[in-house]
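Thread: Modeling a multi-component assembly for a lab meeting

Hi all, long-time lurker, first post. My supervisor asked me to bring a structural picture of a complex we are working on to next week's group meeting, and I have zero experience with this. I have the sequence lines for every component (482 residues in total). Could someone generate the structure of the whole assembly? Inputs are pasted exactly as I received them:
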Amino acid sequence: MTTDSAPWSREEFEAQLRAKEKYYHIYHPYHELMREGKLDRLQIQGWVANRFYYQIKIPIKDAAILSNCPDRDTRRLWLQRILDHDGYGDDPGGIEAWLQLGIACGLERDALLSLQHVLPGVRFAVDAYVNFARNASWQEAACSSLTEMFAPTIHKERLAGWPEKYPWIAEDGLKYFRKRVSQASRDVEHGLAITLEHFKTREQQQHALNILQFKLDILWSMLDAMWMAYIENKPPYFSVD
Amino acid sequence: MTTDSAPWSREEFEAQLRAKEKYYHIYHPYHELMREGKLDRLQIQGWVANRFYYQIKIPIKDAAILSNCPDRDTRRLWLQRILDHDGYGDDPGGIEAWLQLGIACGLERDALLSLQHVLPGVRFAVDAYVNFARNASWQEAACSSLTEMFAPTIHKERLAGWPEKYPWIAEDGLKYFRKRVSQASRDVEHGLAITLEHFKTREQQQHALNILQFKLDILWSMLDAMWMAYIENKPPYFSVD
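Re: Modeling a multi-component assembly
Sure thing. I ran the full set together rather than chain by chain. Output:
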């Protein structure tokens, strides 16, 4: 076994995973425009309506992972994600908070739920994530959730910047993001522990990195579809008579 | 039952399916540039390398359909598609012809087969087609193949226009297209017969139209991803340091 193929230590493996942050969708030009306050009303609405599709598929994705997981202790922890998004007891959950964000941005609840604004490119990217969770092992699917390592920055950025940059958005619409910052940290610890434990050989560790890259590709691809539609004004079939 | 919900006649249903031609990717601006001879070498190569992913997934998709089809007579006919693409006996098949096209455009065989040039957005769109074929009924999947009704025009256009517009492409690279024109007509007859027979009520007929639209969305979405990468020069992570 050469030095090149020796497994990374736990610390080095974690560092390799975290180094993928450079591909996080925070660096997509759509997010840069968003951060700089340069998106107009329709561009914000388009983003919310399309991100909504991702949000509603998260519990589906997590249920697929549960259905592939024979370990009860893991399921007890992983189930929390479904409770977070669908809600439980008095907590209306993340999907409802996202609907509130959409309403604060001037969208109708029914329009959001109908998915009429969801772009095909966004649908295909998000569905790729769900299908991966259905077909991969539960540990591979847990690894694909690790973009959550990078999410707190983007949530904090929105909390800090949106009230000033987009004053027309009712500020209680940001409730979703306030809640997600603390949940994401807890989720990451679990997903990271599974990943560091499961992917042992160098080949397996590289596979884990490829899985994380796949997930990053999904997030970037979603914004590419939104860029074409809302920034370039080239939504599907724009050139058709 | 009101007039609005009465099933369309066979003729009217077929006309409704054919009317979807207005959304065919022949009208995408990428294809318009291609037709006008305005694509450069890299833009042609990018298109071939990405379309190659679609081509290699067709036999996978058709095998998924076979695996959902309990009707032996249908399978005997549908299997021909796999023979066409993978090849049989002395016929090297459509995938080999597509490799020859890539080589004629200056790409290396290994580079094409490695899929290194396949854009995430293209991958997600094509995989959506394969996953649909896996999970839908064989008749629904047969309906999704009906964009073949519109394909002969695009094949003839390339046969007519490419030697003049792109003289640097070795003309025997167009072998694939010459072969596909006749095969597509035969395939369409079978797919159309299945569709006209299976989708009976107005609701089912509308569902068939939605399936065809889904497939049109896939083809358009593939070109959107290529447009971002090769025309806008915004491939994935272009803005990352």
